[in-house]
Description:
With 104 residues, this protein is α+β, with helices and mostly antiparallel strands. The protein has helices at residues 16-29, 38-47, 58-70, 93-103, and strands at 2-5, 53-56, 78-83, 86-91.
Amino acid sequence: MRSISSPPTAPARNDPDHAFHVRNVLIAATADRQMTTEERVGKLLKSRGIPYAVFEARPVFNRYNDLIRENKVEATPTCIIVKNGKKESFVGGPNIVAALKRLS
């Protein structure tokens, strides 16, 4: 399984506006029945000024699955907070938001 990501040498664009721009470009591309290859997606991103790199996604998903098993995650959304060596699990939007607010 291969995925596309911004390469580490690309200018940092880690902001919500850019994320929504990329998302909108990719969503619009789903209507194009010719957008069926990695090369075509790459050409689209390049034409829109979106830096990208191809990488192997399987190790990332394998790690996510390991973390899900290790933390006994059974529902989404779930947030695991590790603080002072103690893990706490929070399930559901309101519980997660409350837990994150307590961290700050």
